[in-house]
Amino acid sequence: MKGTSVITWILIVCLSTVAVQSQYYSNTRPYDPMPEKVTNLHFFLHESLGGQNPTAVVLAQANITSNNSTVQFGILYAVDDPLQAGPEPNSEVIGNAQGLAVVAGINSTAAVTYFDFGFTTGELNGSSLSVFSRNPLIMAEREVSVVGGKGKFRMAKGFALINPYVLNATTIILEFNVTVVHY
Ligand SMILES: *[C@@H]1O[C@H](CO)[C@@H](O)[C@H](O)[C@H]1NC(C)=O
Ligand SMILES: *[C@@H]1O[C@H](CO)[C@@H](O)[C@H](O)[C@H]1NC(C)=O
Ligand SMILES: *[C@@H]1O[C@H](CO)[C@@H](O)[C@H](O)[C@H]1NC(C)=O
Ligand SMILES: *[C@@H]1O[C@H](CO)[C@@H](O)[C@H](O)[C@H]1NC(C)=O
Ligand SMILES: *[C@@H]1O[C@H](CO)[C@@H](O)[C@H](O)[C@H]1NC(C)=O
Ligand SMILES: *[C@@H]1O[C@H](CO)[C@@H](O)[C@H](O)[C@H]1NC(C)=O
Ligand SMILES: *[C@@H]1O[C@H](CO)[C@@H](O)[C@H](O)[C@H]1NC(C)=O
C-alpha cells in the first residue's frame, strides 16, 4: 500500500540519520564570518534598593569580623532592573537587566557584574546582550564590556559607557550608551 511504503521510507531515512548522528561533532572547517553590523543603544537602568519593591536584593554576605572597610566587600546581589527609555520613573520600559553583582573591592566601591540585558519592545524584542565586567560603582564615567548576545545580537561584542544619573542610598539611575557589533 502507498501509506505503508511512505512510512517505511520515513523509517529508513530516520534510521540512517541516527547512524550518521552517532558522530556528535562536525568536521572542523575554516570560519567564514557573516558581515558584521553595528547598533547603538541609549537607555536608562533604574534600580531600587530597599523600600517596598527593591529591584536588587542581597543573596549572601561574608561574615567579616575585622571589617574596617567603608565598602560592602563580600556581598552578592541578585538584580532585576527595568531598562527605560528615559530617566523619569514613568518613562517607557524597553527591557530589563537580570543578573548578579558581587561587591568585589576590598578598599574600593567596585563590583563585578554579570547582567543579561533583555529587550522587550520593537525590533529588539526577545534579543539580549550579555554584559560581564568589573564595574567601579561610584566613578563618574565607567565602561563595561559586552561579551555576547542572543537573537539580533548573536555573536555580539562591544562596550557600554555608563553615566550615573541618580546615585543615592535608595535609587540608582544609570544612563547607558552601548555600542554593539553583531551579525
Ligand atoms: C561571624 O564570625 C564570628 C567570628 O568568627 C562568629 O562569632 C559569628 O557567630 C559569625 N556570625 C555568623 C552570622 O555566622
Ligand atoms: C582599622 O582602622 C583603624 C583606624 O584606622 C586601624 O588602627 C586598625 O588597624 C584597622 N584594623 C584593621 C583590621 O584593618
Ligand atoms: C563592613 O563595615 C562597613 C562600614 O561599617 C559596613 O557598611 C559593611 O556592611 C560591613 N561589611 C560586612 C561584611 O560586615
Ligand atoms: C586595603 O587597604 C589596607 C590599608 O590601607 C591595605 O593594608 C590592604 O593591603 C589593602 N588591600 C587591597 C586588596 O588593596
Ligand atoms: C515581544 O515578544 C513576546 C514573545 O514573542 C510577545 O508575547 C510580546 O507581545 C512582544 N512584545 C512586543 C511589545 O512586541
Ligand atoms: C550618551 O550619548 C548621548 C548622546 O550622544 C550623550 O549626550 C551622553 O552624554 C552620552 N552618555 C554617555 C555616558 O556616554
Ligand atoms: C534618591 O533619589 C530619588 C530620585 O531622585 C529621590 O526620589 C529619593 O528621595 C532620593 N533618596 C534619598 C535617600 O536621597
UniProtKB/TrEMBL annotation:
GO CC, one annotated term: apoplast
Among the GO biological process terms of this entry, one is:
phenylpropanoid biosynthetic process
Subcellular localization, as worded in the UniProt entry: Secreted, Extracellular space, Apoplast
Signal peptide range in chain numbering? 1-22
Q: Which segments of the protein form a coiled coil according to its record?
A: none
Q: Which InterPro entries match?
A: Allene_oxi_cyc_Dirigent (IPR044859), Dirigent (IPR004265)
> What Pfam families does the entry give?
Dirigent (PF03018)
Arranged from A to Z, the UniProt key words for this protein are: Apoplast, Secreted, Signal
Primary location group = secreted
Q: Indicate whether Cell inner membrane appears among the record's keywords.
A: no
Q: Which domain of life is it from?
A: Eukaryota
What exactly does this protein do? Dirigent proteins impart stereoselectivity on the phenoxy radical-coupling reaction, yielding optically active lignans from two molecules of coniferyl alcohol in the biosynthesis of lignans, flavonolignans, and alkaloids and thus plays a central role in plant secondary metabolism.
Protein family per UniProt: Belongs to the plant dirigent protein family.
Q: How does it assemble?
A: Homodimer.
PANTHER family per record: NUCLEOPORIN-RELATED (PTHR21495)
Q: What is this protein called?
A: Dirigent protein
